[in-house]
Design goal:
3 helices; 0% strand; 77 residues; single chain
Length: 77
């Protein structure tokens, strides 16, 4: 069980120090306390995801605008 917990934490990009804390809490049977650092990590990852999505949205907008400009330029010829 502990190997699985650690593997999941590491796969999620959890810092070594945080993984050690969560692992220790799990080992001590303090599962409720282990949730807090995992939720913090999850929230941080969600914020990174949202920031990346905003960047993709900006690029997609620029691509659409550029494609429209190209199309309009071709139609004028």
């Amino acid at each position: 069980m502990m190997d699985t917990v650690r593997n999941h934490l590491m796969d999620a990009g959890c810092p070594e120090e945080t993984a050690n804390i969560v692992e220790r809490l799990y080992g001590d049977g303090r599962l409720g306390d282990a949730l807090h650092p995992m939720r913090i990590l999850s929230c941080g990852l969600m914020e990174e995801l949202h920031q990346s999505q905003r960047k993709v949205d900006c690029l997609d907008h620029l691509i659409r605008q550029t494609e429209k400009t190209i199309k309009a330029t071709k139609e004028r010829r």
